[in-house]
Amino acid sequence: MKKIGIDARLYSQTGVGTYIDNFLFYLDKRNDSNFLYYVYLNKDDFNKVKFDSKNIIKRKTSFHWHSLAEQVGFLFCLVKEKLDLMHFTYFSYPVFYPRKFVATVHDLTPLFFKTGRSSTKSSFVYKLKYTAFSFALKNQIEKAEAIITPSLATKNQIIAFYGDKYEKKIFPIPEGIDYQLFQNFGWKVLKKKFNFKFFIYVGNFYPHKNVERLIEAFLRIKKPIKLILIGPDDFFAKKMQKLIKSFRLGKKILIYHPKIKSELAFFYRNAQALIHPSLSEGFGLPLLEAAYFGCPIIASNIEVFKEIMEKEYLPFDPYDSQNIAEQINFFLQKKPKFNYKKIIQKYSFKKMTEEILKIYQKVIK
């Protein structure tokens, strides 16, 4: 039986972790007997993940991404397995891996939007890591048998940056709605705490997410409505908290760190709208999730959002805080309606999993 490896070391991370988690969830439900799957999990995640399928085997690793241990230890670990195919789900991987592999390239955001002075690293260490990232990504795109992207927009980015010679091996496979959003969760505490009108932002607070401009835009919103920024508690979240304080917007803008993903369903169902000001994305899971729960969307006019949402959202120029404010005020005055039925029918992590397996089969043959 052919052996396929799946890099799941980022299982618990935001963004990529949602992709990996849902892929493995639907892979396990297939009970696929065509291949033997070796899933490489960080030691902290190893006991969190359970599979019913006998064809999925867990492997514990202690080789962190962006590390020398990844380039040496993880490389040795994979070579020893003699896999017929390896799937690297992130750009950080052992660059000297000699066997056949496919790669998921979620976006080129780190190339175009450096964290720079916002990073927790010194400038020297950051530049070193950025150089290593650039090399690893270029190497991955050159060597991969197939490249999976979550959108046509990301495929076009890769072709524009690296050349059209890679066009035929890039396969856009869109994502879907996180299965964890459907898990039962009591909302009584949230209903009591957030018993007022509010907008939401959902995501992390990295510089390319452009949350700073959204906060600036809210200085121009005079109506009695609040903004809840929902994301992880980290260095960048604390930076947003300081900005909110400096603008004296503490009563209008709140930051909330959800304990479990199913809490998001409450916010999507009860928000006036999702506002997403990102400058660059590979896909846009919060937009799709909001659409599923019938939450109106006000978001950047970037290509990937237009690809996913078509014309069923209220767009703004993400580089212009005044335009962001104008569209928020327009929404509050006009309350435009959007039809998300056709959009949510197009996207599914189950469909994504099936399409990825087709690529495995094609590459192995």
Task: Explain this structure.
The protein has 365 residues and is an alpha/beta fold. The chain has 2 domains: 2-176 and 348-364, Glycogen Phosphorylase B (Rossmann fold), CATH 3.40.50; 179-346, Glycogen Phosphorylase B (Rossmann fold), CATH 3.40.50. It is built from 14 helices and 13 strands. It has a 7-stranded parallel sheet with strand order 3-2-1-4-5-6-7, with helices on both faces. Strands 8-9-10 form a 3-stranded parallel sheet, sandwiched between helices. It has a 3-stranded parallel sheet with strand order 11-12-13, with helices on both faces. Strand 1 (2-7), helix 1 (16-30) and strand 2 form a beta-alpha-beta unit. The mean pLDDT is 94.
Task: Give a brief outline of the structure.
Helix content is 41%, strand content 16%. It has 365 residues and is α/β, with parallel strands linked by helices.
Write the topology of this structure:
Layout: E1 2-7, H1 16-30, E2 35-42, E3 56-61, H2 68-81, E4 85-88, E5 101-104, H3 109-112, H4 123-143, E6 146-149, H5 152-162, E7 170-172, H6 188-193, E8 198-202, H7 211-217, E9 226-230, H8 235-246, E10 253-256, H9 263-270, E11 274-276, H10 285-292, E12 297-300, H11 303-309, E13 314-316, H12 321-334, H13 341-346, H14 349-364
Parallel strand pairs: 1-2, 1-4, 2-3, 4-5, 5-6, 6-7, 8-9, 9-10, 11-12, 12-13
Helix pairs in contact: 1-14, 7-12
Instruction: Write down the CATH topology of the largest domain.
Output: Rossmann fold
- Average per-residue pLDDT, rounded, comes to 94
- How large is the radius of gyration? 21 Å
Strand content: 15-25%
